[in-house]
Structure formats: C-alpha cells, structure tokens
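Model: Ready when you are.
Researcher: Fold this.
Model:
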Amino acid sequence: VQVVESGGGSVRPGGSLRLSCVASESTDSRLCMAWFRQVPGKEREGLAAIDSDGTTHYAEPVKGRFTISRDNAKNTLYLQMNSLKPDDTAMYYCAARWWDGRLSLRADEHNYWGQGTQVTVSS
C-alpha cells in the first residue's frame, strides 16, 4: 500500500487547511487510515483515525478542531484542520493499517506511511 499526502502549507493562527492523502489500495477495503504529526525531537503523535465504514477516533488535542474523512470512490483520505494554532506546526503524515477490529492512533501499529507534508502556523 502506498499513500501520498498533499495540502500542507503556511497559515496564520486561527486559519484552516485541508490535507489529502491518496492511497494505492481501495479505501473501501478493510484498510484503516490515520493522520499523525511529528516535530523534531518528539515522538510521532496520532491525531485521528477512520475505518472503512467511516467510524472515527480523535486525539484530545485536536478533537473539535480537526475532522478526518474519506472518499472511497477516490481512494482519498482528508484532514480538515480548523482554528489552527502555532502548536499545530509539524510534519503531517498519512498512515494505513489493515483492520483488526479496532481503530488505533499508535504509530507502531501502522504499516504504511506517506512522505509527510509540512504545516506551519505562524503570524
């Protein structure tokens, strides 16, 4: 499975961005997908995950501000990010894993990763 992110960039605090991730496998298969982010010197942080039926799970720091969604017809995953803060500045990664009965935000449980897209929130 290959995944490729896009949509990063620079935005002012309070602004919005939408990230996209195209998967080489059909996203209506039993493929769970998730978004992570990482800043230098810190561990990769799980943000949001979604299964093939559209069930979602969010980490507390982004709950209510970020929305994960998927378009199975386009094999594409999205992350809508609103009310962005400087602390959201990071490299954002798309990841995938095969469904095993639960959603996960653990990086070590995901097998397939994109190359990352940079998000910078600054005034």
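Researcher: Now this one.
Model:
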Amino acid sequence: QLQASGGGLVQAGGSTRLSCAASGRTLRWDSVAWIRQGPGKEREFVAAMSWSGVIPYADSVKGRFTISRDNAKNTVYLQMNSLKAEDTAVYYCAAGSRGAINSVDYTYWGQGTEVTVSS
C-alpha cells in the first residue's frame, strides 16, 4: 500500500514536498514514480527512481523537482520548487514499473494528493 501526503495550496514560485510512505512493499528494491493528473488532462509522468538509481524527470519539471528515497523510512519524496500554475494537479506515487520507468505504466498506486498553485 502506498500513502501519499503533503499536497495543498502553494503560491507560484513557492515550494512544497510530497511524501509517499509504503507498507507491505520495500521501495528500495523497486522502481517508484510520481505521476500527476491536471484538471482535464491525462495522467503524465513527472519523475521516477529505479532500484539501481536511474532518475529520469519530465522536461517540464527538470531543474525544479527532485525525487529522493529514504530507505530506512521506506518513503519516497518529491521536492517541488519554483512552482508554476501549470503544476496544479493531483500527484500520485506509484511503484512496480511494467515497462519504461519514465511512463505511467505502474502496477501499484497511492491515492493521490492534490497540489494547487495559485498565481
């Protein structure tokens, strides 16, 4: 089970950090990702981390977002800086890639946490 938290209302240019805590699954041996779905949009890949340390980012967030993992806490984070209105979305953490890790094709999903960026 994946439990995402940390969303909320943030001003443009601000920062926030999302957390994804796992139970019943060890994330350090898994590929994990953050995926978002904006209002009226399809789900889109944001960032991922493979078990071997490969870390791809979507071009739209490169240089602003950072994915990280705390193995002791079995938790994955997404640090989001320089937020823009277009980052407004429900953010999902996912694990268990079924193909390319820079995709939305994952087996296990958290419930999503909403981030709203006000301009």
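Researcher: Key takeaway?
Model: The CA atoms of residues 48 and 98 lie 13 Å apart.
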